[in-house]
Design a protein that fits this description.
The chain has 376 residues and is mainly β. The chain contains two helices and 20 strands.
Length: 376
Amino acid sequence: MNEKLIFRINIFILIMGAMPFLSYALDLDEVLTLRILSVSESKKTLLINRGLEDGLVVDNHAKFFLTTGVIARGVVIKASPTRSIWSIYRLVAPAQILKDKVLNLKVSSAVKLTKDPSRILTPKSFFASPPTRLQEHYNGIPLSANNSSEYNDKNIANREDREKELQALLPNGTKNFGQTGGLQLNKTIEVFATLHFNGLSTSTNQEGGESFSGNQAFSDITLGLEKYFKKRDHFLHRFSFLAFIHRGSAELGDLDNDTISQTVFEYGLGVSWHWGNDPLAFGRPIGFWHFSAGLGTTSEEVTIDRTSLSTADSFEGTANFFSLGLGAKYYMAFGMGARILLDYYRRGETYEVENAAAFTRTVSGPRLQVGLSYRW
């Protein structure tokens, strides 16, 4: 690995390390349609079919509503990729809180603290006894004045009852209901860098002349920017589009002290289609198909240095390319990720040589690309 390549990798690592580690939660006023999977007898604890993949995280507050208006207000106390458990701290229409009921959910800000400690319920108080004790490191939730008769100390479950309610909501006594992964719907821009490890073959032809074949094996680097789409119900959500630049160089020598060096600079566009997990997921692998194409330039220098002969020739050419491959991505919650791509690559090169017929060369074969990325 040459010094220039090492320098570029170090610069990329420094840029990535300087980026802020962002947290994620669903935006205020975003609306989701949901189904109630289970509801406790007191109707103060719900299990719904929306979770981290939909942008819901612990401590999210939301209003549950129908076309007729708001029926309840609650806060997330546990979340998994596809489900979440809510504590309902305001019941407006208890008769509408039913298993298999389809509702709308609108994310909202937490209600401000009441000054009356006897009417405060905090998210953590679901597992505390007594549950109405003020815990200053959480935002308190006041009971509505016009709703206090429905929701007071007498009908708030104690610690034992609350845990029974939670276990009753989880199928088969599931205990693993943690944040093992999720969805980052607001992080739709990504910067990435990949190293290529190639095993390419070449075929050179001169108009009216001979043909030659050979091999190229060297490593190079690609830098790119990729765009994802936030709306999960849109047909573009599974796609991403990218623009990138690619630079590669190689130097070959033989026993006669002859050297051939080549530099390739390419720029192109690409598209990926993601399968398996959601393309904006974190904490889980994401598979993708990839296609890209573009143009470029190439330069080649041949140096002959022998006792009887010393000469150097340079050639400038144009290039076009395409690639098709299969890969996988993986991201952490703060946006840092890694990717791997195995693709088939084909590049066509054309050299115009003074006082001679033009040369064309085809470079093709498999490439393995591995790299890092950051999205925000």
